[in-house]
Write a structure and sequence with these properties.
Elements: H1 2-14, H2 30-33, H3 38-46, H4 65-75, E1 83-92, E2 101-102, E3 110-118, E4 124-129, H5 138-144, H6 148-153, E5 164-167, H7 174-182, E6 186-190, E7 214-218, E8 225-230, E9 234-239, E10 248-254, E11 259-265, H8 267-275, H9 278-288, H10 298-324, H11 335-347, H12 367-380, H13 384-393
Helix pairs in contact: 1-11
């Protein structure tokens, strides 16, 4: 399995159109061809299973549950950043599966939907697959709506008033912000008008705003604020961490002046823009060297996707280590070089069986030394019959 995973990693970096090309005489890749034959590769991929298919099951993800649990267990041990974003990620797949979904705004709209909790540099900290009804409890769905996914994903976030979760408008609501405040976790995100209640009527019309202007509403308990800021279009930000001050500026293109100008911007919007794109950044890393060979089996696609995800996580941690040790960027591995090194190491790995321990008293000399000693003793020994004949002739020492 380790050799098979390494071949998939190298295939993703090289990017041939068909998997059989790696074994053809004109296009052969010796690293892959020497490790495994083509027929063996296809056979292993066709018969790859993580559980017994004849066993009883109640979950939709039962075929990859053990593998996903191993990856998630390691992800939960990674260091938590103070700013974390929660968003959807799609595993591209168009075959037969009971929980394939379509999200049109995504680069890969059709596939398996996964909720990701990630750090600003793209490090995946936790994940949860959407498998239809039952992914989130019915009580939470009734209470929080789509924000129930955020409620469940933030269970692994430390509750110490030092972490802020960023969400988009589909997963932000006043109820979710209040619930996370009860867990000592802050939330900030864009929000829809139909989730704000009566305060929507107090907001000014978009036509009354100039570019860079905003208005701010603070709740009576001073725990949540709502900011409406006008850029090219108006944007609504619900925040439990900071408000509009201290104000900052951002660069925007001016059609009238034909150059970039400074536009006033609330600090809550600036923090949102800086920390919200972590899941998109992880998607970009995965798309660079993804294994795109077609397969009709969703467990195989899931396996390949999370092998790539684990390597991307390792590469992000490697870059953090390089930054801490002030290693120049010229001496750091790029993602392509890093994946190629990992793939080669997986392919060249050789399993060595442990030597069975012998019973009895341990020997004083090594096995190799004992063989040499035995050879010397055998050379010194003389046959008894020959020795007796020599003694009769008087030729012995």
């Amino acid at each position: 399995m380790l050799h098979l995973a390494g071949i998939h990693v190298v295939m993703g970096v090289l990017g041939y159109a068909q998997s059989k090309l790696y074994w053809q005489q004109n296009n052969q890749v010796p690293l892959i061809a020497k490790c495994m034959t083509r027929d063996c590769f296809y056979e292993l991929r066709n018969y790859m299973h993580f559980v017994d298919n004849t066993s009883e099951h109640n979950e939709k993800l039962w075929k990859v549950k053990r593998f996903l649990d191993c990856v998630q267990k390691k992800s939960l041990t990674l260091p938590r950043s103070h700013h974390i974003s929660n968003e959807e990620q799609m595993v591209p797949f168009s075959g037969k599966c009971g929980f394939v979904t379509c999200v049109p705004p995504k680069p890969n709209p059709l596939g398996l939907k996964c909720f990701i909790l990630a750090a600003p540099d793209g490090l995946v900290l936790d994940f949860m697959f959407y498998a239809g009804s039952g992914t989130v409890s019915a009580e939470d769905m009734k209470e929080y709506g789509r924000s129930a996914a955020v409620v469940k994903m933030t269970e692994s976030v430390p509750r110490d008033n030092q972490h802020c979760v960023y969400t988009d408008r589909f997963f932000t609501s006043v109820k979710s912000v209040d619930m996370l405040l009860g867990r000592k976790i802050y939330q900030r995100g864009t929000v829809m008008k139909n989730r704000l209640g009566p305060i929507v009527k107090k907001l000014k019309n978009d036509m009354l705003f100039q570019r860079g202007e905003w208005e701010e509403w603070v709740r009576e308990d001073s725990k949540i604020c709502l900011i409406k800021w006008k850029d090219n279009k108006s944007v609504l930000i619900l925040s439990a961490f900071v408000g509009s001050g201290p104000p900052t500026t951002c660069k925007r293109w001016s059609r009238e002046q034909k150059r970039k100008i400074d536009v006033p911007q609330p600090v809550a919007v600036k923090l949102y823009n800086e920390n919200m794109g972590s899941v998109d950044l992880c998607d970009r890393f995965l798309s660079y060297y993804r294994w795109y060979i077609c397969t009709s089996k969703w467990p195989v696609r899931m396996f390949n996707n999370f092998i790539d995800l684990v390597i991307v996580n390792c590469w992000v941690m490697y870059h953090r280590w390089c930054s801490e040790n002030e290693i120049p960027k010229q001496r750091r591995f790029s993602l392509m070089d890093y994946k190629m090194h990992v793939g080669k190491a997986m392919i060249n790995y050789k399993y060595v069986e442990p030597v069975a321990r012998r019973r009895g008293r341990p020997s004083v000399v090594n096995s190799s030394d004992s063989e040499d000693v035995d050879d010397v003793q055998n050379m010194d020994k003389k046959p008894r019959r020959a020795l007796s004949q020599l003694q009769k002739l008087g030729l012995t020492m």
